[in-house]
Amino acid sequence: MTRPLTQTEENYLKAIYKANEKTKAAVNTNTIAAYMKTSAASVTDMMKKLAQKDLVIYERYKGARLSPTGSKTATSVIRKHRLWETFLVQKLGFSWEEVHEIAEELEHINSDKLITKLDEYLGFPKYDPHGDPIPSADGKFMLREQMILSQLDVDESGILVGVKNHETSFLSHLNNLNIALGTSILIKERSGFDKSLKVSVSKGAEVVLTDMVAKNLLIRKS
Amino acid sequence: MTRPLTQTEENYLKAIYKANEKTKAAVNTNTIAAYMKTSAASVTDMMKKLAQKDLVIYERYKGARLSPTGSKTATSVIRKHRLWETFLVQKLGFSWEEVHEIAEELEHINSDKLITKLDEYLGFPKYDPHGDPIPSADGKFMLREQMILSQLDVDESGILVGVKNHETSFLSHLNNLNIALGTSILIKERSGFDKSLKVSVSKGAEVVLTDMVAKNLLIRKS
DNA sequence: ATATATTTTTAGACAACCCTAAAAATATCT
DNA sequence: AGATATTTTTAGGGTTGTCTAAAAATATAT
């Protein structure tokens, strides 16, 4: 009788997943606490519990990594999150900065059939409204060539395929600049002083992007 | 700082709502316990808590009724449940006996905007896939003339507009008989012995309905 | 390498929701 | 009305997930 995980447990797994996506090294207690906006003590408690359920590999004072099962679970939650975000934007007409919070709730709904049907209904999307890849049912991510806008040279151009920052304020800022997924961006000038870029957006309006913005834009060179 | 209700609290309110829909009288502790599949002791605890939050009017040993706020909340949860059921059937292609459980989870997602947009996406449906009325955002139900199939006389006919029983087994039974919402049913014969009915379905096949089935079919006379 | 700072764990406690068993209140029967 | 049966509440306790404060382990600095 393996009972389903609680939302909290799923969120811890997701936090660990996101924290070590690249490194695969063990994640600190404090790092998890920051992700979860909770205390280190609570994290320790939860790591013991998740380790006992074989979802996490945990050594005291050394941090935690996901077990294969834990990793599969985390990926499945991310899949659900991104499919729901896609639904909210494509079908219900939400804008990309509104959907994260709602999807944080929807991702915990428990029904494989629901997700299978939702995926089908959406036409098996490979990327969500922020350009993040949607893992397939067996946990595989679609990878793509991408680079950060700040790495482009003057006179080079790219198409926006993703964003590294998902905060509402950042996404709204892009809305104001008329920058969305698929928008083409051509670098016109780079300031030697603060690295800010003058770019032309969709072969039209010229706008200035601070380096802080440019660092968060993922593009495919065009 | 009114924090949102927990799923459990919402489910208790829904249970009280359903238990006294007609009578409006106070609901027994044991009745609520049966609905919630929990112990009477737990119900007493919860009633104290809900009374303290002004969601329920509760007198010890006398049972509970919903306060205006409690009633509004219960109605809103029912609205969400029925809209999600409609979505699952109409958009994702679920069959009517599969959707209740999933909607039990979806009904607790917290976003007014989500429900507003879902309602619009579905074309402001007035009835869910079981024929139950979907309350409007301000809590009003669309009422309709309806009667129970067993009340019809021989040679009278009606259109199925709802079902009183929502169990999977009952709904599957209707599927097997080719009876769905909108199906027209004409009474051909009534047995004097066990009140079973011989009916013709959609002006075609003749089938026999036991009284137990006929009692659970809501029809509009045609 | 020893002291200091940081990180992590343990200890003890609280809130939400659940339980069983016993006590109290109410209802029913004769 | 008195006895019995039923319903409801109280008492005491368990689990999950949270917290703060103190103790223990590890890392850093001089």
Q: Could you state the order of secondary-structure elements of chain A as H and E?
A: HHHEEHHHEEHEEEHE
Strand portion of chain A, in percent?
Answer: 15-25%
Tally of discrete structural domains of chain A: 3
CATH class of the largest domain in chain A: Mainly Beta
Helical content band of chain A: 25-40%
Which regions of chain A contain 5 or more consecutive residues with pLDDT less than 50? none
The third-level CATH topology of the largest domain in chain A is SH3 type barrels
Overall body shape of chain A: globular
Structural Rg of chain A: 20 Å
Given the structure, what is the number of helices of chain A? 8
Largest interface: A-B, 18 and 18 residues
Oligomer: homodimer
What characterizes the major β-sheet of chain A? 6 strands, antiparallel
The structural class of chain A is alpha+beta
CATH homologous superfamily descriptor of the largest domain in chain A: Ferrous iron transport protein A (FeoA)
The count of β-strands of chain A is: 8
Distance between the termini of chain A: 53 Å
With strands numbered from the N-terminus, the spatial order across the biggest sheet of chain A is 3-8-4-5-6-7
CATH architecture of the largest domain in chain A: Roll
Question: What's the overall average pLDDT of chain A, rounded?
Answer: 94
